[in-house]
Design a protein that fits this description.
The complex is a heterodimer. By secondary structure, chain A is mainly β. Chain A is built from no helices and 12 strands. By secondary structure, chain B is mostly beta strands. Helices cover 0% and strands 55% of the residues of chain B. The radius of gyration of chain B is 13 Å and the shape is globular. Classes of the chains: A mainly beta, B mainly beta.
Amino acid sequence: AQTVTQSQPEMSVQEAETVTLSCTYDTSESNYYLFWYKQPPSRQMILVIRQEAYKQQNATENRFSVNFQKAAKSFSLKISDSQLGDTAMYFCAFMTPNTGNQFYFGTGTSLTVIP
Amino acid sequence: DTAVSQTPKYLVTQMGNDKSIKCEQNLGHDTMYWYKQDSKKFLKIMFSYNNKELIINETVPNRFSPKSPDKAHLNLHINSLELGDSAVYFCASSHMHEQYFGPGTRLTVT
């Protein structure tokens, strides 16, 4: 079964501090892609960062970076220099091309940045 | 130049009615999806449609049916609406392992 687990339903961080959101997944596929999506109060789903499973180097997008541990099936998101606009729901997801391009989402982590 | 658009953004209707939500993508993507997001923010895949292959989540009631007139559109039809259908419905499309979402349609069944 393909599953994604986000064990932190809610988190908070002080503005300008760093926070890490956890995600673990389970798949028997060897080829897959991992994602973090952000959903602010506007409800728009925004792609934050993406990681190819075959790449060892961790992806980085400005203040957002991931810690991808393939053997542990872990894919955490680090947000540096947190800003008020980072307040949102964050979803971890993965996709396996061999299963019809299906995307599997976690239950989300609600992040609040405190001024 | 909206990539994935949905109409309407808000839909309020009574139980028992039939309604449709339209989705269009101008990205040239091959695969389109419908998701349901409930009040707890859980995102659940309902359908995916790729090159005329429809993959249905078996837990979706058959009152829900996707219809794709062409590659750029995947509309969602819902018959005999129930209170439990109230949710936000997202359309999405994907190509080359990236998925992009529409703005969502908040459906309220009274």
